[in-house]
Amino acid sequence: MDKLREAGAAVGEWVDTSLLKSPARLALGSFAIVILLFTGLLSLPIATETGERAPFIDALFTATSAVCVTGLVTVDTGLYWSGWGLGIIALGIKVGGLGIMTLASLVGLAVSRRLGLTQRLLAAGEARAAGLGDLRSLLRTVVVVSFSVEIAIALVLFPRFLTLDYGFWRSLGYSGFYGISAFNNAGFTPDPLGLIPYAGDFWMLVPIGLGVLVGALGYPVYLNLIRGWRRPRDWSLHTKLTLIMVSALTVVSAGLLAVFEWSNPDTLGDHSSAKSIGNIFFQSINQRSGGFNSFDIGKAREQTWLLEDVLMFIGGGSGSTAGGIRVTTLAVLLLAIWAEARGRRDMEAFGKRIGTEVLRGAVAITLIGLFIVIIGTTVFMAQTDIPLDQALYEVVSAYATCGLSTGITADLPPEAKGTLIAMMYLGRVGSLTIAAALALNKQRRVIRYPSERPIIG
Predict the structure, then answer these.
(1) Which domain holds residue 132?
(2) How buried is 343 (Cβ within 10 angstroms: 0-12 exposed, 13-18 middle, 19+ buried)?
(3) What are phi and psi of 115, to 5 degrees?
(4) How far is it, in rounded angstroms, from Cα 138 to Cα 124?
(5) Where are the transmembrane segments (predicted)?
(6) Is 174 a member of any domain?
């Protein structure tokens, strides 16, 4: 009995030191547990349209894709899963979009009206709060904005589905599903053919596209805009950089997409000018993280694939439902290049100086992401006979939790599906979270070595 008590005490001590004192590891473990929970729910016979159990790899893949708000699928979402299964997927998207730690903090706050330090650290890190004192306001913003936007999208789409003779309950379910999927940048569609049949239907594309755009900005931006929407000059540097980068990337990607696909008869070439322009802007919004597509990506040109590789890797705003390295990371890297080109010592924007520790973080996020993508693509190609362009597209889409695909996902062998599952998981929890989870301790050195500058370039 004494040995059991000692063992229990040892385990408790390990949990306290390894988990509670390392929010990153707790976040990793929590995400994994939730994915397994939804895998179990999707493995139930009631979850499929045929009433048969889904293969474990497909249930795991779908659960990971939902919780990681990605949108890649190995089976047709609208045909394979039952209404109950679609509800489980929508719930997984909602949980993944809010964030496991944020959701746990919301529940704890509702029950006890208090948040422990560990919960505050987890939620603040996941939602990118400016500080622990900002957390309560940020959590309130998370709830209000997410539910408001999802309900608004559903209300707009509901009458449209009624006009398509979907019936009341199916229209209600589909509109709610699209609202959740759009705001959380998940890219899941309950329609068997996705949004391709609605390529010229702006009643469908506009609310979904706006939902994706709003969802990709990030909760810190919402909070800042709500507090100071009348005073743009007082917006934080993060908000300004996010809005500028999102706008610039949307316009640039739309222009390049028009150049690449305007004359392609398999994508935009057979459409009217108005329809083509609408689809271009819809796709330019979804290229970075939304995952919806209004034309067949598999028939797009290779230049478009390369463009979308870059855009997916960049992703959306920090603290948002989008993935990628985030637009502010790119902004910091561009500001560093600009400062170096002009011979300036500091990175500056809007009258603010950006510290070198921010640049180190941006470089770390980018390089870790590139390393994961390169390793993932290498492994993926070794597991399949898929050429580099399609393999890279699929891996980047998974890591950036975007969900766009050239149409190869369903036919992949189990081991390749496992690689994409790992990519989605790593992409959702974040590069720096992985790095922090692997770091056993942090050392603060009192003694510093003398500096020396190596030759660069």
Answers:
(1) 13-434
(2) exposed
(3) -125, 130
(4) 9
(5) 26-47, 59-81, 87-111, 138-162, 202-225, 237-260, 310-337, 358-382, 420-440
(6) yes
Give me the sign of the Cα torsion angle 225, 230, 235, 241: positive
Question: Quick check: is 196 in a domain?
Answer: yes
The letter for the amino acid at 223 is: L
User: What is the pTM (predicted TM-score) of this model?
Assistant: 0.86
Token code pair at residue 92: 């997984």
288 CB-side CA count, 13 A: 33
What are the b/e assignments for 243-264, b being 16+ CB within 10 Å?
Answer: bebbeebbeebbebbbebbeee
Q: What is the pLDDT of residues 253-297, one digit of tens each?
A: 999 999 999 989 888 887 788 888 888 999 999 988 888 988 889
**Structure token pair of residue 403:** 């969900």
Give the rounded percent of residues in the chain with a pLDDT score beyond 70. Answer: 82
- Spatial contact of 219 and 145, defined as CB atoms under 8 Å apart: yes
In a domain, 375, yes or no: yes
Joined tokens for residue 239: 């908000």
Structural domains of the chain, count:
1
**6 occurs within a structural domain:** no
Tokens of 6: 């000692």
Angle formed at CA 34 by CA 291 and CA 52, multiple of 5 degrees: 80
Q: How far apart are the first and last CA of the chain?
A: 65
Cβ neighbourhood burial of 361 (10 Å; 0-12, 13-18, 19+): middle
Instruction: Report the distance separating Cα 339 and Cα 444, nearest Å.
Output: 29
Q: Residue with structure tokens 């855009």?
A: 311
Whether 229 and 141 have beta carbons less than 8 Å apart is answered as no
pLDDT category of residue 305 using cuts at 50, 70 and 90 = very high
Q: Which of 427, 403, 428, 421 is nearest to 60 (CA)?
A: 421
> Where are the strands (E) in 292-423, listed by range?
347-349, 352-354
DSSP SS3 for 345: coil
